[in-house]
Amino acid sequence: MAHTSDLVTFSLADVHQATRLLLTANPGAIVAYRLLREVLRMPPNHPELAQAKAAALNSKWVCQLEESQLPDGSWGRFHSQDTKKKTVFRTTEEAIDRAFVLGLEPTDRVLTQVRQYILEVLQGTALITDWDEKNEAWPLLIKYLLAGRLAQIDPGNKLLDSFWTYLAEVARQAFALGKYCLADEAAAYLNLSGIHLPGGFLESQHALWILATRRLPYRLEHALVSWMWHKPDGIRYLRAPLHELPSRQIGYWLRSMHLLSRFSSWREIALDTLNQLWEQRDSDGLWDFGSDISRSIDFPLSENWRQSAKRKQDYSTSILVLLRKYYD
Predict the structure, then answer these.
(1) What is the mean pLDDT of residues 69-77?
(2) What crossing angle do the helices spanning 266-279 and 250-260 adopt, rounded to 10°?
(3) Is the peptide bond before 300 cis (omega within 30 degrees of 0)?
(4) pLDDT above 70: residue 188
(5) In Å, how far are 131, 236, 242, 287 from 233, measured between CA atoms?
(6) Which pTM does this prediction carry?
(7) What is the rounded distance in angstroms from the CA atom of residue 166 to the CA atom of residue 221?
C-alpha cells in the first residue's frame, strides 16, 4: 500500500536513491543483502540477490549464530540469563533478535529450528531450562513469552489464534474508556484466568508481537500504539522512549520501531519522528550515532566498527529498512 502526503519529507524514490548510493560503497555482505532484499525488494530469484544471500550466510556473524545454536534449536535459557555460564548469546530470545538483525528469514535453517523448538515447548513435548519465576502468573506468562517469539518468526501460525484472542480481549478491557488503564488490564487477567498480574503485560514486546499478527479494530489499535508511543520508558524489555531519538539507545529504539511498524496506525503516529530521522543524515547522506551506544544485539552488521564508514553503513541500513516500511 502506497502512502503519500505533503507531510512526508522523504519519498520512496528518496529511500531507493539513498540505498543505491550506499550499495556503491561496497558494503559488507549483510548490509548489501538486507538493502537488496528489504529496501529495494529485489525478487527472490534474482541472481544478484542470490549471490548476496550466499555471502551473508557465510559471514562471520551468521556463522557465530549457527555455531552457537544447540541441537534442540535453542541457545540455552529462553528468557532469563544464566549468569553462571559464559555464552555467545545471553538467551534464546536474544539470538532470535540477532538472527533477524542479520537479515535471516523465517525459512532459513537457524529460525526454522528455533521455531520448531518453540512449538514443541508450547505443545508440551519439550522443556525450557529457565528457572520458574516466583510469580503465580508465571505458568501463563511463559506461554505468552514463547508465543510472542513464535509470532515474530511465524505470524500466520494457527497456534497463535487463541493467544491473539485472549490478548485482544485484555486490550479491549484495558482501553474500554478510550485510553489505557492498568487497573482495568489487571482486572481482565483476574476475570479471564483468575490470576493477579498487577504490572500488566500489554506493554511487553511479546504481547505486541502477538497482537500484530491479526487485525485489531482501528480505534483499539490506534489507542494501543499511541499509548506505547508516548510511554516514557517505551516497550517492556526494550525500554527506549519512542517519541524521541535516543542516540545511546538507538539499537533498542530501532527494534521497537520495527516492531510497531507491523501496526497500520504506526505510520500516522510515527510520521513526525520519521521525518526528523530522515533529516539527520550527514553530508554523505548516511546516519551515524557514534560507537558509544548501549549494548544491544542490533549492531554491528559489518565485520567490525574500526572504520567509521562501516558503522555508518550499519546504522543507515537499519534506518533505510525502517523508512521503506512506511510505504508498505
Answers:
(1) 96
(2) 140
(3) yes
(4) yes
(5) 27, 8, 8, 24
(6) 0.95
(7) 15
Nearest-angstrom CA–CA distance, 149 and 106: 12
246-250-254-260 Cα dihedral, nearest 10 degrees: -30
DSSP 74: S
Cα-Cα end-to-end distance for the chain: 5
Angle made by CA atoms 167, 197, 138, in degrees to the nearest 5: 85
| CA–CA distance, 155 with 211 (Å, rounded to integer) | 10
* Of the candidates 36, 29, 23, the residue with the CA atom closest to the CA atom of residue 62: 29
Task: State the virtual CA torsion across 22, 26, 28, 29 in degrees, nearest 10.
Answer: 100
Contacts of 182 (CB under 8 A, 6+ apart): 174, 198, 199, 200
Residues 286-314: pLDDT tens digits? 999 988 786 789 999 998 888 899 999 99
Gap between the Cα atoms of 270 and 118, Å rounded? 32
Alpha helix locations (H) across the chain? Answer: 12-23, 29-34, 47-57, 60-68, 92-101, 109-122, 138-153, 161-174, 182-193, 205-211, 218-230, 250-260, 266-279, 308-325
3-state secondary structure of 238: coil
Q: Please state the rounded mean pLDDT for residues 198-213.
A: 97
Q: Is the pLDDT of residue 37 over 70?
A: yes
- Name the one residue in this structure whose C-alpha cell is 558503522: 311
The alpha carbon dihedral of 179, 181, 185, 190 has a sign of negative
pLDDT for 220-254, tens place per residue?
999 999 999 999 999 999 999 999 888 889 999 99
| pLDDT (0 to 100) of residue 6 | 58
| DSSP 8-state secondary structure symbol assigned to residue 158 | G
pLDDT above 90 as % of the chain: 86
Q: How far apart are CA 257 and CA 245, in angstroms?
A: 11
